[in-house]
Structures are given as C-alpha cells and as structure tokens.
Amino acid sequence: MTQKHTPNIDLVEENKRLRAQLAQLEDRLEHLFENGPAKSLHQSEALHREVLAVTSDAVLITDEAGRLKYVSPNAHFIFGHAAADILKQGRIGFLLPSNVFDPDLLEQRGEISNIECRIRDSVGRARDLLITVRRSVSVEQGTLYVCRDVTERVKIERDNELLTITLERRVDERTSELRESRDQYRRLVEGLRHEYLFYSTDERGIINYVSPSIHTIMGYTPDQALGHNWREFVDTSTDEYAKLEVMDRMRFAGLPTPPFSAWVLHANGTSRLFEFRDVPLLDPDGNVIANEGIGKDITERHETEEALRRVRADLENRVHERTVELTERHEELRKSKELYRSVVQDHLEFIVRWHPDGICSFVSDSYCRYRGTDSDTLVGTDFFSSILEEDRGALEQKLGELSSKTPVIEHVHRVVKLDGHVGWERWTHRALFNQDGQLTEFQSVGSDFTERHKHLELSQARDRAAAQVLALTKREQDVMRLVVGGDANKVMARKLGLSIKTIEKHRGSLMKKLQVRSVPELVRLALLLGDCAEA
Predict the structure, then answer these.
(1) For residues 449 and 462, what is the distance between their CA atoms, to the nearest angstrom?
(2) Which residues have CB under 8 Å from 49's CB, separation 6+?
(3) N or C: the chain end with fewer CB closer than 10 Å?
C-alpha cells in the first residue's frame, strides 16, 4: 500500500510546485506589463494614435506590392473615407495616382519630399496634396506616405498670383493713362502759351515753377521769375494788394480761396489785369506746402467791359434826360390840348366828309393829291373802297359805337395805294348828329401813316428785342456778341475761358430767351438793336 501511494504523492507535490511557479510568473508578467517596457509601449502606441487622429497630415503604409498595411485615423479629413473603409479597398491606387513618384528615385534617395498631387475626395471635390514618401524598414520592406492637404494654401497662392497679375495689369493701364494724360496736359499747356500762365509758389511766396508762357504774356523769361517772390510782380499801389495778402494767409492755412483778379507788372512797365485760380498742394499729413495756380490776362476784356459800362451809363443818363423832357412836353401838350384841338384838326392833311352809307360829300385838296385825282372824281365814291376788306369790319364796328356823348374815334387801317402797294392811314372820325340825336354825317381827318407805322413797328420790335437782351445774363450777352461776330463755339470757349459744353448751354439758353431759331435771326435781332443804338 505504501509503495502504491508514493508516486501519486510525488505528482501532487510536483503539480503544486509548478502551479506556484506559474503564479509567480504571472505575477511577474503582470508586474512587468504594468511597470515595465510593455506599459510604455502600450502608452506610446495610444499616444501615437491620439496624435494621428487630430493632426492634419494623413499617414499611409504599403508593402512592396502597394497593398495598404496601415492608414492613420485622420485620413478621412483629406480623402473623405474612414480609415477602415480605405483598408478594405486594399491598394494605394484607391487614394493616390499610380505615378505619384518614381520608384527608382525613391530607391536611390530613400525619401522624396513635397510631391505635388491633385486628387478627388469621396464627394468629388478637388484637393491639392503635398506628399512625402519614404522607404519603411520598421517591420518589413514597404513605403510610408505622409499626405498634407494644401488645397487652401494653393487656392490662396493662385488667388494671390491672379491678384498680382491683375494689379500689374491695372498698374500698367494706369501708368499708360497717366502718361497719356501727362502728354495731353503738356500739349494743352503748350497750346495755351499765348493765353494762360501756370505757376507754383511755396509758403513764403517764392516762385518755384512758372510756365514758358510768361514770356509771351508778361515779357519775362522763366529764369527772371524763378526764385523771386510773387509780390515783386504785383502792383502794390492798388487796393487789391491787401486782399492778396489776406488770401495768401488763408491759402496756406488750408482755407479755400475764391478766384481773384490782380494788377500785374509787365516787363515793359505797364500794368495788366490778370484773373487767377489757385489750388493748394498738400503733404501726406494734409498740410499745405505749396500753391499751384493758373492766370489769364483779362486786361482787354476789362477795358471792353469798362467801356460798355460807360456807354450804358451814358445811355441811361440820356434816356433819363429824354424821359424828363418828354414828360414835361407831354404835360404842356395835355394842358393845351383843349385849346388847340380845333387848330390841330384843321391842319391835318386829309379832310373828308361822308354820309353814313359811305358816300363822300367833300374831299380836301390834300386828299385829292394823295389819291392822285380830283375832287369831282372822288366825291360820290365810297369812302371804304380804298380800305382793305380785312380792315373794314373793325372800322365799321367802331363807327357803330359812336354816339352824341362819344362822337370821336381814332382808327388806323390799311389801304391800297396808287402804285398797288399796301399803305397805312390814320384817321380821326367825328360823328355829326342833328338836334334829334340822329347821325347825319361823318367828318374825318386823316394822314398817311405808312412811314410812321413802320417806325412804330420797328420801335416796338426794338423795345421787345432790348427787353429780351436785358433779360439775358452777362455771360449770355457775351456769348451772343461772339455768335453775332461769327465766332465758332471753340473760339468763344477760348475767348471767354469756358468749356465748349458751357458755351453750347449759354447759346441754347439765349436763343430760347430771345425766341430765335437760327443764327441769321439772331444777327437780324442784333442789327435791329444796333440801329436803335445808332439812332
């Protein structure tokens, strides 16, 4: 019995010993896993996974045959596919073009950096990548791909490139425009050398630029003016000089100044009246550092305007004197009207008596001479026979309104003269009534009114024209004078210092105000006013 149980006891003891050793090994292994390299490796792996999950660069690893062995968790940021879905596809060609790099070059270098590549993500959007490929020898031979999405950067670079090209083109265009504008301005300045003076002064009043036209306008060379103060060329004895000093201080204080006139000393010792317009030149801080301007000699215009003012004043004075004289004469005539009425009537040229039916009963010798016949021929004829048919109705209507209380009318009508021309006659018709108040006869005193009527019409036309011209502005009168003189719009614009568009505007306005439709009508109106002035 003892021999039979001994082996079993040994096996049990050996089993216990082995179990104890296994427990010690497990404890040791657990200790190593928790505190040794295994734990560090596990933590490092977890850290790498966490970093790759949030970084923008996607990492791919393939074997020698191009089969995917590893896809970083953040691959979906670039390719739009989850890492597990990419691994299911199996090959790198699912994500990248097959010719993305040269294998021989990679074999030679071991790494190729910053390969530019364009792909389409899972929804078809184009993405620009920078890819770095490297030979991987960590586990087995393969290729490691590091993909960086540079779509936004490429877009910005392209936009910047396009913007740069656009800016360069715009700079070229603007430069060309400025060059053309400069050349045009230079031609304009050179073309105006006989009329305009261009200049620039600093804050002390020193002339630092003057156009060559100063020689033709003022008699000085540019060298004689440069470096001198503008006050040396101004007539300081005039009242305008103090105003010039005030405006100069305003100008360099940054205050706007209106156009002004000043008497300038010519090289020949005479004084010339100039009209100036200034523009301040500012530094980047907005301070006035210089003054640029343009001047025009308006001496002749000033003298012409002064002469016109004198003529107008003289004319107004004469009109006033004549008005006073006529008023006095009118008052005298009014006082003596009743006294001399019969005398004036008796001394009129034509005297005709006729019946209410129009048949003449008496004609004076002066009327016979006027009609070119004798009294025997005219007596018994119709008084209305020589009157134009269009004027008879008006006369008959007036005659029908006569009564014993208002027995006299004055009337002007047209007649056909001996030469066949139409003339005008002026008559005073007096109705004669009997004691019963019945109309018995007309006594008419008349005269040839043709010339006086023409003068009257001419005078009325002149008055209307004068009133229309007085309604014009000063500038419109200047334009009218130049149009009548035959000047073209361009010439008028140069003479008046205005633009052609402004000349056209004034021209249209004055034509409308004067109620003329053409230049010949305007000339006739001006001639009419000229005849009036001569008269």
Answers:
(1) 19
(2) 73
(3) N
Phi, psi for 125 (deg, rounded to 5): -75, 140
Task: Say if CB 39 and CB 51 are below 8 A apart.
Answer: no
Query: Which stretches of 90-232 are DSSP H helices?
Result: 103-109, 151-191, 214-218, 222-225
Joined together, the tokens standing for residue 366 give 């002066």
Q: CB-side exposure of 264: number of CA atoms within 13 Å?
A: 24
Residue 359: pLDDT band by 50, 70, 90 thresholds? very high
DSSP-derived letter for residue 91 is B
Distance CA 78, CA 100 (A): 17
Q: Which CATH class is domain 192-297?
A: alpha beta
How far CA 178 is from CA of 170, 181, 182, 294, in Å, comes to 12, 5, 6, 21
DSSP letter, residue 227: T
The CATH code belonging to domain 48-117+131-148 is: 3.30.450.20
Measure CA of the first residue to CA of the last residue in the chain; give whole Å. Answer: 180
In this prediction, residue 528 has a pLDDT band, given cuts at 50, 70 and 90, of confident
Tell me which amino acid residue 379 is.
V
Question: Distance of CA 394 to CAs 294, 387, 401, Å?
Answer: 67, 11, 11
| Best CATH choice for the domain 455-534 from the list 3.90.78.10, 1.10.530.10, 1.10.10.10, 2.40.170.20 | 1.10.10.10
How does residue 441 score in pLDDT terms, banded at 50, 70 and 90?
Answer: very high
Summary mean pLDDT of the chain:
81
Q: For 177-232, what is each residue's pLDDT tens digit?
A: 877 776 676 666 555 556 788 888 988 889 988 888 888 888 899 899 899 998 88
Cα–Cα distance measured from residue 176 to residue 170, given in angstroms and rounded to the nearest whole number? 10
Q: What does the DSSP assignment read for 223-270?
A: HHHTTSBGGGGB-TTSTHHHHHHHHHHHHHTT-----EEEEEE-TTS-
